[in-house]
Amino acid sequence: MIYLDNSATTKPYAEVLDTYRTVSEQFFANPSSLHSLGGKSEQLLTRSREQAAALLGVEPGEIVFTSGGTEGNNLAIKGAAFAYRKRGKHLITTAIEHASAGGAFTQLESLGFDVTYLPVDRDGRVSFEQFKQAYRDDTILVSLMHVNNEVGTVQPVKEIAAFLSDKPKTVFHVDHVQGFSKVPLQLAESGIDLCTISGHKFHGPKGTGLLYVRQGTVLSPLFAGGGQEQQRRSGTENLPGICGMVKALRITREHQNEGICHLQKLQNQLFEGLRNIDGAVIHTPVEHSAPSIVNVALRGVKSEVLVHALEKDEIYVSTKSACSSKENKASAVLTAMGISDEEAEQTIRISLAYETTEQDIAVFLKKLAERVGQLKIVMR
Amino acid sequence: MIYDYLVVRFGEITLKGKNKKQFVVKLENDVRDKLRKFASLEIKRHFDDLEIKLNHETADDVLAVLKKVFGIQNIWPAIKVGTDIEAIREGVLRIANQEKSAETFKIAARRKDKRYPIHGSELNQDLGGTVLKHCDWLHVDVHDPDLRIRVDVGYHETHIYGKEVQGAGGLPVGASGKVMLLLSGGIDSPVAAYLVAKRGAIVEAVHFQSPPYTSDRAKQKVIDLAKKLREYGGKFVLHLVPFTEAQVAIRDAVPEDYRITIMRRLMFRIAEKQAAQRGALALATGESLGQVASQTLESMNTINAVTNLPILRPLITMDKIDIAKIAKEIDTYEISIRPYEDCCTIFLPKAPRTRPDRNHAARFEQKLDVDALVREAVDGIETIVIDEDAQEDVLSQLL
Question: Which of A64, A237, A328, B295 sits CB 3.0–4.6 Å from A211 for a disulfide?
Fold first, then answer.
C-alpha cells in the first residue's frame, strides 16, 4: 500500500495507540473527580499540557485541548468575534480557508459581522499589500491558514503577524492544521494570538487537537458546562486522546528537522516526475509552498476516475480536501486561483508524511503515468 | 546562532579572601553538573570567570540553564575573531544584527596590545560608524545604551561581547550548609526556600500532611513545588510528616483560639528533630511579620520558645505583593494557588489568638503527650528525593 493522502489524515503511530490504550485502561477516572484516582488523571492531564507547551515553546496555561481542527477553528474565530464584538464588527480572512473556518465566517456574517475575504493569486497566495489595504481601525479579528490544505501554498503569516504585533485591538488566528510539522511557525512573541492544531494530521488519534490561546486573549466559549480547560472548553477531557496526541507531538518534533528535509526531497522528486507526464499541470508553487503537498491536474483525465484507478494499485491519493470532496462542485481553492472548472475536475492532491519513501514516490509516478495513458485512450 | 562562547562572571564570591578558590570550584562543579545534558560544551575555569565554548549548542538553551545557577552574577555571550579591522567590524555587525529589540547602542573598545595601530577611541568611532551604516534601527547613546558591545583587542585575537545576561546572583548552593524549611504549599514558603538557597544553603523541607483531611492532590502540589525548587539546587529532599494524629489530639485537648499556636510549636519541634537527623543547623519559614495570626510578634515569640535553632525568615519584612512577584518569577505561583486544603487550613478556629503567651501555651500543652506526638510524627516521615532521574516515571513514559 502506498498512502499519499496524509493531508486528509495520517496513520497513528504505534506508540500513540499504546498510550491511548494504557491511559484508557489505567487512567479512566475523571480528572475533575475529587478522589485520588481522579487526582492521578488530573496529574497526567497537567503533565500532558506541560509537555505540549514545552514542545511548542509556550506556557501551559496557553494550551486548550480540543477535539480537532474544526473545533479549534470554530472556537478561535467565533470565540474571538463574540468576545470582542463591542470593539468592532470587521473581520478579515481569505477566500481559500478550510470549510471549518470559512463556515464559521459565513455564520458570523449572518449575525451582522462584516467580513473581508482576501483574494489569492495564481499560486493561491494572499498579498500582504492587499491585506494592509483591507485592514481597518475596527478590524477585531484576522484569521488565515498557514498552509493551504489543497495546494500547499504558504500564506504570508509571518508578515501579517509582524504587522499586527503592535495592534493589540486585533486578534490574529492562524489555522496551522496543515502547517504543523511541515512549515515551522513560532508562536511565542510572534504576534499570533490563536493557533489551531489538529492531532490526527501528525499521527495522533482522531478527535484530538489543541488551540494555542496567547495569555491575555479572551474567548467566548462555544460549549457551556463544567468549565474545563480554563473555562474555555467545557466537557470531560478526552485524556487518552490528549495523551496520544501529546506523544505524537513529541515524536514528530523529534524527527522534524530531518523530516522536513526528507519531504522536500520527495516533493522535488514528484515535481521532476510529474513534469515528464504528458498533460500534467502542477498547481503547487515551487516557492512559498509546504513540502508535504503536490496539487496537479492531469489534462484529459477526470480526477475521480484516476483516484479509483490508482486504488487498484493500492495507491491512495485524493481529489481535493476530504472535507469537501463529496460535494459535486469544483474546488473553491482552485476557482479562487483562477483555474477553470474543467481543469479543477482533473486535479488530484498528493500529500506526504515523514514515513513516505523515495521508493513509494517512484512506484507512484510509474503507476500514475501508466494509468493516465490508459485512461486518456478510454476517455477519448 | 552567532555566538561562539559564553563568559560566566562570578558574583559575591570574588570578594572572598582565602576561601575564594573553594567557592569558585564549587560553582564550577555546579555549572558542569547543570550543563551535563549539553554534550559538546567545553568549560574552562579562569581566575575570575568560566569560559564556556558552545561548539554546536544553542546559546539561548545554555543561558536558560545558567540563569538558574546561584553564584553567577552575569553572563556575556561572546565571539572570537582575529585582530584584522575588517574581521572586527564584521564581528560587531554580527552582534548588532542579532539585537533587533535594542534601539540605542555603544561600542566600548580597548586594545590590550598597545602596539595595535588603531587607538581605543578611534576604534570606537570606526566600529560605531560601521554599525550606524548597516543597522538603521540603532542610534548611539553613550550614557545608557540598550546594547553595549564590548571589544577587547588582544595580541592574537579579539573578543567581542554582546548583551549581558543577568545571572541569579547569590552564592553557590551548599556553600553555606544545610537548612530545614517548613514547606506548606502556599505562596510564601517556596519563595523562602528559593531565597535561602540563593544564599548558598542546601534546603531540605518538611511538609505536614493530615490524611484524610488533606488529599493526595495536596501532596502532589508540594512535590510539584519541590520540582521547581530543584531547578536551582540540583536535587531537593522532601520529608513528608504524618500530622493527623497530632492535629486531632490538639483539636481535642486545646482551647480553640490556641490551636494554631500549639500546632506551630509542634511543627517546630518536629522540624528541629528532623534537622538534627539530617545535619541541618537552622530552620527556615516563609513567615512575614503580621501577615496572619501566627505571624505576629507575640505568636513568633511563643512559637520560637520551643527551639534553640536559629530560624531564618527571609520574607519577614516583605509585603505579600512582593513575595507573589518573586513566586511568579520562579514559577511556583501557579502551583501554589491550586486550591487544595493543607494541614494549616483544617480545624481552623474562627478567631485564632493573635497575641498568644508563652506561659499559657506551655500550660495547654501539659494536656498533650508532646514527646510522644513528636516522636511518632518523626518516625512516620516519608522522605522523597527529587532529582532529575526521578522525573523519568510512569507518566512521562506515557507521553
Answer: A64
